[in-house]
């Protein structure tokens, strides 16, 4: 079965996760990652106050007070625990969450991201995005590489509002997995329909190629 | 039971321009019954501290639609279309804080701490005008603690002394808010005898709770239904 772009990104990210890691999945493509980590033993944290998030419940078992950060009903795993919001963000900022998987609008060549302020709309929501950017030990960004009008989300310099000084570790797209080193974008892995040269041309600035597997 | 009140009996507590701390994430863990009553009380011009302004026409949404909120401090108002509209017309002031900063500010407010340094939001628009300080080689942003006049919180159960236990992710901001206001009103689904909770499971000790209100809402499938 051929995966659509969103599913492919989710699957690639699931492959990056290690056994025993504490992982926070953002809304959108990051949520899909959960479907592909069945063979791993990772602990899913959700910032509204739960560690040990399980798969979605059957319709008849929905409890709307048992939800993820996107307000979708979830279940709990046997070792799960609940806590308040201050404790939860203490867990995030305190470096107790190994990986945050976040959506994005833009990533610059240093790995700084803009993922909260939607263009041409009043900025009235940030949620936990900035806390996760600042606090998680490792940040993996999950997004399609191009916007609907075809412009790359990987840019030399952010044009949208930054989510924080902290740089992300990886940017996983449907074409390639990018890493960042002192302003250089390193292609870690290519698996889509575009070659390295085609990616470089479409992104519009030089990339480095280094398979690290 | 000396702390138990009917929602309408609470009106004497509220005065114009008070700062209210209101629990909930979306509307999970929101004191829906107390907020229904608040929307009808005479007082108004409130400054509200809450993650968002209700959802799906419930909770703080009703208080806002009744014209009683002048300012909202929270992390996610994107879902509150009417509030965004009011903000763009200059009818509502909004102060946006990252969710973890909001939670920690309230925790500090209730714990006798004046403020705190956090790495969150450094280098963003939300850091504008705020002090930056380097501690052991790491840069942090200063955020002030938040306290309120009245906290309106939601718990699962109270015992007759006012000890509270919470249900799953409906806990969210409620335990901190219970510590950070002069008056605390807790809406609960059930009231039990003293001694039914193990002391280990109590999250909010009774000393923080001034008034208890029984919720009129029950959960049915995917929503909260008003029943009683």
UniProtKB/TrEMBL annotation, chain A:
Belongs to the 3-oxoacid CoA-transferase subunit B family. SUPFAM superfamilies: NagB/RpiA/CoA transferase-like. Keywords: Transferase. Signal peptide: none annotated. The lineage of its organism: Bacteria, Bacillati, Bacillota, Bacilli, Bacillales. This is 3-oxoacid CoA-transferase subunit B. It comes from Solibacillus palustris. Pfam families: CoA_trans (PF01144). It comes from the Bacteria.
From TrEMBL, chain B:
The keyword Transferase applies. It comes from the Bacteria. GO terms for molecular function: transferase activity. Keywords: Transferase. Pfam families: CoA_trans. The keyword Transferase applies. NCBIfam families: pcaI_scoA_fam. PANTHER family: KETOACID-COENZYME A TRANSFERASE, SUCCINYL-COA:3-KETOACID COENZYME A TRANSFERASE SUBUNIT B-RELATED. This is CoA transferase subunit A. It comes from Solibacillus palustris.
């Amino acid at each position: 079965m051929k995966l659509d772009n969103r599913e492919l990104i989710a699957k690639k990210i699931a492959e990056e996760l290690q056994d025993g890691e504490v992982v926070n999945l953002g809304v959108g493509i990051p949520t899909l990652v959960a479907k592909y980590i069945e063979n791993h033993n990772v602990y899913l944290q959700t910032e509204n106050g739960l560690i040990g998030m399980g798969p979605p419940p059957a319709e008849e078992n929905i409890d709307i007070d048992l939800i993820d950060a996107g307000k979708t009903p979830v279940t709990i795993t046997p070792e799960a625990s609940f806590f308040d919001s201050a404790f939860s963000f203490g867990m995030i900022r305190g470096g107790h969450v190994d990986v945050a998987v976040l959506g994005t609008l833009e990533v610059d060549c240093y790995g700084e991201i803009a993922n909260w302020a939607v263009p041409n709309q009043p900025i009235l929501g940030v949620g936990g995005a900035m806390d996760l950017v600042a606090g998680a030990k490792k940040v993996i960004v999950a997004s399609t590489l191009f916007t609907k009008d075809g412009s790359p989300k990987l840019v030399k310099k952010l044009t949208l509002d930054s989510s924080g000084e902290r740089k992300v570790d990886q940017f996983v797209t449907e074409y390639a997995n990018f890493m960042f080193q002192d302003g250089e974008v390193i292609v870690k892995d290519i698996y889509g329909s575009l070659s390295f040269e085609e990616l470089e041309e479409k992104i519009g600035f030089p990339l480095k190629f280094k398979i690290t597997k | 039971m000396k702390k138990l009140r009917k929602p309408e009996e609470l009106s004497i507590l509220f005065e114009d321009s008070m700062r209210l701390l209101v629990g909930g994430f979306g509307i999970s863990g929101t004191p829906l019954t107390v907020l229904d009553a608040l929307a009808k009380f005479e007082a108004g011009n409130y400054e509200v501290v809450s993650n968002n302004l209700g959802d799906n026409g419930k909770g703080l949404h009703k208080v806002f639609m009744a014209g009683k909120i002048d300012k909202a401090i929270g992390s996610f108002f994107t879902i509150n279309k009417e509030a965004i509209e009011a903000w763009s017309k200059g009818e509502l002031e909004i102060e946006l804080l990252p969710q973890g900063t909001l939670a920690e500010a309230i925790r500090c407010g209730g714990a006798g701490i004046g403020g705190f340094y956090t790495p969150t939001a450094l280098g963003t628009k939300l850091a504008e005008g705020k002090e930056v300080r380097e501690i052991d080689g790491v840069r942090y942003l200063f955020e002030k603690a938040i306290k309120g006049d009245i906290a309106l919180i939601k718990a699962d159960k109270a015992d007759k002394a006012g000890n509270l236990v919470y249900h799953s992710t409906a806990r969210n901001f409620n335990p901190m808010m219970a510590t950070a206001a002069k008056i605390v009103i807790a809406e609960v689904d059930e009231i039990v005898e003293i001694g039914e909770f193990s002391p280990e499971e109590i999250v909010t000790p009774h000393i923080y709770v001034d008034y208890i209100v029984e919720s009129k809402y029950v959960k049915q499938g995917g929503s909260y239904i008003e029943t009683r």
